[in-house]
Write a structure and sequence with these properties.
The protein has 187 residues and is mainly alpha-helical. Helix content is 76%, strand content 0%.
């Protein structure tokens, strides 16, 4: 009689995954110069807004996947939507480390410069920023692998069909995140 039947954990994890993805974008986008944000333009409220936006986008993408996933795989099981949302949420499990450990350390060691395009002040900050980005990317890749494996097992499909689902989910993330991320650059 619990609502939602799967509990709230997959939704919390999806929100955490969205936040971690957006924070990774802030770091990577600055590194490869896909966005422009100087230290002078940094405001703590912008970072809080990015965290909230990431959580909302993570949840939105999870709900859309819950609707789209069963249709994509032709699953008629009444619990398929719930299973797709669970797979999406549980795949974000590695992102807890990115958000709970790396994010506070980014702020403590490097400061706001972690999320801006301003050059880093010293070699310790630079080394930490590089390690943080590498670890964040590793956690994101691990999350993608968990999602792929979860969907493949859930729908009992072959490898290539699950890869197709992974590509659709990647497209879903791109549709949810890319307009917001690149809209600021072109305005």
């Amino acid at each position: 009689a619990q609502r939602p039947a799967e509990g709230f954990t997959p939704y919390v994890l999806a929100a955490i995954g969205g936040v971690a993805t957006l924070l990774l974008w802030l770091k990577l986008g600055a590194l490869v110069e896909l966005r422009e944000a100087s230290r002078a333009s940094f405001r703590p409220m912008y970072l809080v807004g990015a965290v909230l936006l990431g959580a909302l986008l993570g949840l939105l993408a999870q709900f859309v996947w819950g609707w789209l996933g069963p249709a994509l795989f032709g699953t008629r099981d009444p619990s398929a939507r719930r299973s797709m949302r669970i797979a999406w949420g549980l795949a974000a499990l590695p992102q807890i480390v990115a958000l709970g450990v790396l994010f506070p350390l980014d702020l403590a060691i490097v400061g706001p410069e972690s999320f801006t395009t301003t050059g880093l002040p010293d070699s310790v900050s630079t080394a930490w920023a590089a390690a943080s980005i590498a670890l964040s990317v590793a956690f994101a890749v691990w999350a993608v692998w968990l999602f792929y494996t979860g969907v493949r097992v859930m729908v009992e499909s072959g490898r290539w069909r699950a890869v197709g689902g992974l590509l659709v989910a990647g497209g879903l993330i791109a549709v949810a995140f890319v307009p917001l991320l690149f809209g600021a650059r072109f305005s």
